[in-house]
Structure formats: C-alpha cells, structure tokens
Amino acid sequence: MYLDKILKDVKKKKELSTISDEFVQGIVEKHLRSNTKLKAFFEGHELKTLSRSTKYKEFIKKIRAELRKVYGVYAKENFEKRENFLREGRYVEILKSHLSTKERLDIYPQLYKKIWEITGKPKSILDLACGMNPFSLRYMNLEDVTYLAIDISKEDAKLINKFFKQEGVKGKAKVMNLLKIKEKNIFEKLPQFDVAFLFKFLDTTIIKSRKIGELLIKSIPAKWIVVSFSTKTIGQKEMKKANRDWIKKLCEKLGYEVKVLNFKNEIFYVIRK
Ligand SMILES: C[S@@+](CC[C@H](N)C(=O)[O-])C[C@H]1O[C@@H](n2cnc3c(N)ncnc32)[C@H](O)[C@@H]1O
Question: Is the distance from CB of 52 to CB of 5 less than 8 angstroms?
C-alpha cells in the first residue's frame, strides 16, 4: 500500500528512522487530508514507479522537514553512539547528545532543587515528551522514585528502559503521541503522579500550542505539572516573546496556582492543580 511505502521512504533518513510509525503516519495523513488531489494521485499510481514521480519526492521531503522540526533537529547523536555511552555509564554524554538537555546541564542541580522546594520531593514522576531528560535523574537527588517517560521514538524508549534497568530504577519508557489528546484522554489508564514534566514541548512547531496546552494541562494525571519553554531560539538568539503569559492566564482560568522559575535559557512554570 502506498502509505506503507511513504513511511518506509520517509524513515530511510537515519535521524528520522527511530520515530514511531504511528506518529509519522499521523503527519502523513494530516497532509493528505488537506490535499485530496495528491492523495488520489498516490492511490491511482502504480506502486513500483511511484518513487520516480516528482510529486512523490516532494511530498517525502515535506514530511521529513516537518519531522525534523519536531524531533530530528534536537537529536544530535545517533542511536549506536548513545547505546555505547549507556553501556559505559557516560550519562552526561547522553544528556549532551540532545540540544534541550545539553543546554540544561549547568542548571540541573539548581533547577530540581528549586522545583522540589515548591512541590516537595516527589515519589513519582511523569516525564512527557521526555527526550533524553530521564538521564538527568541523578541531579534530582531522589532516593526512591517511580518514573514514567513518554516520547514518540521507540529506540529512545528502549534506551531509557535499559538505563532504568541498569540503574535499578523503578522506571518505564513508553511511546505515546501527545497530540492524540485532541481525540481522547490518553492518560486514562495511567495512575496519578506526584510531579509531571512537560519540558520544551508546547513550542514544537507543528502544534497549536495553546489549545493542546490546555487539553494536556487539564488531563495530565499529576498534582504538580512543570511546563517549560526555551527563552532562546535554536540559533541562541533571545526570543521576542520569552514570557508565555498565556500559561499564567490559563492557570488562572482553571483555578490552578502557578509559580515561575527563570533560568538562563529556559522559563519554568510550576503549576499546582
Ligand atoms: C524540544 S524536545 C524536548 C525534550 C525534553 N522534554 C527536554 O526538554 O529535554 C521535544 C521533544 O518532544 C518530542 N515530541 C514531539 N512531538 C511529540 C508528540 N506528539 N508526542 C510525544 N512526544 C513528542 C520529541 O521527540 C522531542 O523529544
């Protein structure tokens, strides 16, 4: 079927190869829904010769570009390198391999200390759109914690699961598409957590951040939710709208308390539901 072919071709690029099929398919389908002519073209075309057509090539490029925006651009090292770092226990190298965690390296000890001062030390953490953040566990200074990490890459989930096992942490990493919150409560089957992290997710380019933000914040099963945003662009320039006041307004509307922690490159909103 042409859809399987598209998925396979999109994922031929190494840096995109670990993203879950379901996530890629969602993006492909979204594009085809808004371009029914192209969909009909793909459906009517012989599969064997499809990759030779310009329309097909351009479509694959477009999907890859979108995926790079939400995922690829942050993942600096490839999977094998991270596996080696994991085996050698070089977790800082893994943190350095992802832009978001790399930038946070200097602030991690202070950051978690400040968060726990507000929330109290948690016994359970839900890390949403986690990237490599679970590898910062040692900076959290927690004795006994249950950890659930969620992102869209199967390979990253495997890596994080190995890490939990290696470190004897009661943790699990799962693949879940947070954008599905538009359709249903994806957290229905999860238990309640003390603290949830939603670091640097709501600004990822393809999502309508405010609406998704509201849906997520309302349904995340945690007493405390820590939402963060970058205050610098990927090119390290100061952002024009570094403050996300809409988060504060949203919390006011929902009757949630919110405290702000400002760090060098990142702003954190600590929300109490
Ligand atoms: C900027 S990175 C932040 C990673 C991590 N939260 C941190 O701050 O260190 C954004 C992350 O969101 C993940 N992501 C993007 N779209 C997603 C979705 N629909 N569902 C779950 N995770 C997603 C990406 O794979 C990536 O790891």
Answer: no
